[in-house]
Design a protein that fits this description.
By secondary structure, this protein is an alpha+beta fold. Helices cover about 55% and strands about 10% of the residues. Bound molecules: zinc ion (ZN).
């Protein structure tokens, strides 16, 4: 009896509360798409994406192409112009109701904004961003060590590229010493003659 009384006085959840609950329970794939963009496989000549549905539409040779977002599974349909040719006005139309749990609860549409999904995604991602920064930093440090080792290996060769003949060639050194001795002797001889 007491609990019945209690239940009767609990106020109904506000749209903000209901939206917060929905946002917290939204799976990562749906959240990432709602915060960003869907990932519908691209249409390219030669081979349409796997899992595509193409159905005739209308009486002018139009077609409807249906694919699902590769991340959240939301189906999207594109209607071609005549004879299957996509016109500039052809764009993907998403079937939100086809994906259970994708839409925010009724009555919360005015509460939830794209920014709310981005903030929620950012909070769930923060630890991964920090961990990835550590991985990138250690990769940068390893690349620097490799570069430093490469420079150290290259430097001696660069020094010897223009060798000093007197420093590296014993014969050149000897010739220089002999020449100096000869000049000295000649100078002494001239001195003696004077
Ligand atoms: Zn999606």
């Amino acid at each position: 009896m007491a609990s019945k009384t209690f239940l009767s006085v609990v106020p109904p959840a506000t749209p903000e509360q209901r939206f917060s609950e929905y946002l917290a329970g939204l799976d990562d794939d749906k959240l990432a798409c709602k915060a960003g963009t869907h990932n519908i496989p691209k249409l390219k000549p030669g081979r349409l994406p796997e899992g595509v549905d193409v159905r005739r539409f209308g009486s002018q040779g139009q077609f409807q192409i249906t694919l699902a977002c590769e991340d959240c599974g939301l189906p999207a349909t594109l209607t071609t112009g005549n004879h299957g040719v996509l016109g500039p006005e052809s764009r993907w139309v998403y079937d939100y109701a086809a994906l259970p749990g994708f839409l925010a609860p009724k009555g919360t549409g005015r509460v939830g904004r794209k920014a709310d999904y981005r903030v929620e995604l950012g909070q769930r991602l923060a630890a991964d961003v920090i961990n990835a920064a550590a991985v990138t930093a250690s990769r940068d440090a390893a690349a620097k060590r490799v570069e430093a080792a490469r420079r150290a290996a290259v430097t001696p060769r660069q020094v010897h590229r223009r060798p000093n003949a007197h420093a590296t060639n014993p014969r050149a050194r000897k010739n220089t010493r002999d020449g100096e001795r000869k000049m000295h002797a000649e100078r002494q001889q001239r001195g003696g003659q004077l």
